[in-house]
Each structure stands twice: as C-alpha cells, then as structure tokens.
Write a structure and sequence with these properties.
296 residues, alpha+beta, Urate Oxidase, 2 domains, binds guanosine-5'-triphosphate, EC 3.5.4.16, hydrolase, GTP_cyclohydrolase_FolE2/MptA, GTP cyclohydrolase I activity
C-alpha cells in the first residue's frame, strides 16, 4: 500500500454542512526561544473551518507549521508568519487562524543587598490571531509580589503607641531605655499582616514588539515589592523595610499597575487583575482594571 491509497477522511464532504469557529489541536509540546532562552512550551493551534461542507481541517499542516517556532526568537513577525502558513495550507477552507502558546519564562533576579541572585518563573501566554486579514497579539503574564495591609499597619502602630504609653508612663525618657524597648518584642507588640499576591496582566499589543521582559520589569517596578529569590538576612531586612515603605491595598496595586501599563507605547489595551491572598481572611482581596487606547 502507498500513500496514494490511504483513505483521506478530512477531504470528504461533511454530512452536516456547518462552518466551525475553531478547529485544531491543544497542548502541543514544543520548544520556543524567548529572550535568548530555549523554553518548554505548549501550543494550541487552530483555524476556522469556514467551508461548512468540508469534513475536516488538516491537522498535520498546522502541526508542521509550528516547526518555524523551534529555532528563531519569538517575535510578532514570526507569529504572523506561522498563522499565515496555517491559512496558506487551508486555502478555501479557513479564513481565520489562531495560535496560543503557554510557557514559563525564567528570569534571574538579584538579591536586594547581598551579591546573590536566583531564578524566578513567570507564567506567560501569548495569543496571536489572524482574523479577516487583521493580525492581533495578546500577552498574559502573572507577576507575584508581597503586599502589606496599610490598615493593619496603622492598627499595629496604634498598639505600639499604646504600649509605649503604658510602659513609659510617669517615667523620664532615657534614650537607651527607649532604644532597648524599640528592639524588644515587648515594645513592638503588633505587626501588620502581609501576603503573597499576584497580578494577572492581559495586554493587547500594538506594533511589532513582543515586550514580555519589559512588561514584567515595569509591573515589578510599579508594585515595588516583587517576590525575592536568593535571600540572606541582610536581604530579608531590606525586604522588610521595602514592605514597610510600600503598604498597599489591592486597589493601590491595581491603580499602580494601571498607570504603569498605560505608559507603555507597545500596549493598545489591557485588563489587569490583582489578587491579594489575604492572611487576615480565608478569602482573597481582588481588584481589576481595564483600559483601551483612545485611538484603538
Ligand atoms: N480533521 C481531523 N483530523 C484528525 C482528527 N483526529 C485525528 N486526526 C488525524 O490527523 C491526521 C492528519 O490529518 P491531515 O493533515 O489531513 O493528514 P494528511 O491527509 O496525511 O495530510 P495532507 O496530505 O497534508 O492533507 C489524520 O490522520 C487525521 O485522521 C480530527 O478530529 N479531525
């Protein structure tokens, strides 16, 4: 038997003539190249099946087009070429092409004080589509950070003041005694609660850039207290200071990110969501914000 004799079911006519919005494959394993790193990724590749009479699309043609992603750095232009290949190989069948790529970007982050550094992963999804000949790219990025509750900090300060009044009532203040009191657990009787928090950024890009690392850096700079990697005591102390100077509700975090993302020329629109996994509650504090460029 040779290839010519193999039955080709996809080429048959469909019993129910009905176009479909998306047909393809999800969870395809592939390596991609971002920021000089070869990363493990999974891809969802699909096309619309506009010819409702066709039984099926040609899955293998989509799969083989993904080979373009193996060696070249991931750029908007490359994504567009892959999508165009999807359409070129489905002429007469499909008008729209879709590609989602999920990966974990690894970035090396320096410690706050010590000369150490360590790796952090950032879940990243890249969604590209070629619809009615219009090309769109969207990025989804998760960034984790620490947030300390400003209300809890104020309440803790009040308790410390109260303790000071109690401990030093009717006592002439002596510098050394106050210093020792400040360094004791008896003096600093309360601490504010803080939590590991995450920002989910979903941005629609304009132009030809795929500014994944820039966006992560901008988000972490706006938040101020990104989760750390290698930590010695000096780093932990610097982190405690950074948190104390960076008290924030989830609303504060959402507003800061909103302003930071809006400043990026690469972004056309965004939807962001911040989740503070409260240690005060068993539930989360959450804020969301959207923006679309006026000219979009
Ligand atoms: N369309 C379609 N194909 C499927 C599905 N599940 C598995 N396949 C298989 O995907 C394989 C690749 O399909 P094609 O790309 O059409 O393969 P081909 O006919 O050898 O390739 P071409 O000659 O390029 O058309 C076939 O063996 C299909 O049976 C499905 O749900 N839909």
């Amino acid at each position: 038997m040779n290839a010519l004799t193999l039955p080709d079911i996809a080429a048959q006519a469909s019993r129910q003539a009905l176009p479909l919005d998306w047909v393809g494959m999800c969870g395809i394993a592939l390596p991609i190249l971002i920021d000089g790193q070869h990363l493990t990724a999974t891809a969802d590749a699909g096309v619309s099946l506009d010819d409702g009479t066709a039984r099926g699309i040609h899955m293998s043609r989509l799969y083989l087009a993904l080979e373009m992603l193996d060696q070249q750095p991931l750029t908007s232009a490359l994504l567009r070429n892959v999508l165009q290949r999807f359409l070129d190989t489905h002429e007469g069948l499909s008008k729209n092409a879709y590609l989602r790529i999920h990966t974990q970007l690894l970035l090396k982050r320096p410690a706050l004080v010590s000369p150490l550094a360590g790796w952090k992963t950032y879940p990243v999804s890249i969604e590209a589509r070629l619809e009615n000949q219009m090309f769109h790219v969207e990025l989804k990025i998760d960034v984790t950070y620490s947030s300390t509750c400003p209300c809890s900090a104020a309440l803790a300060r009040q308790l410390i003041q109260q303790q000071f009044v109690d401990d030093f009532a009717n006592t002439p203040l002596q510098h050394e005694a106050v210093l020792a009191w400040l360094g004791s657990a008896n003096g600093i009787v309360a601490t504010p609660h803080s939590q590991r928090s995450s920002a989910q950024l979903h941005v629609q890009l304009q132009g030809t850039d795929l500014p994944i690392v820039d966006l992560i850096n901008a988000a972490e700079a706006a938040l101020g207290t990104a989760v750390q990697t290698a930590v010695k005591r000096a780093d932990e102390q610097a982190f405690a200071l950074a948190n104390g100077q960076n008290l924030m509700f989830c609303e504060d975090a959402a507003r800061r990110l909103h302003l930071a993302l809006k400043r990026s020329d690469a972004i056309n629109a965004f939807h962001l969501k911040v989740i503070h996994a409260e240690s005060l509650h068993a539930h989360d504090a959450v804020a969301e914000s959207r923006w679309t460029r006026a000219s979009a």
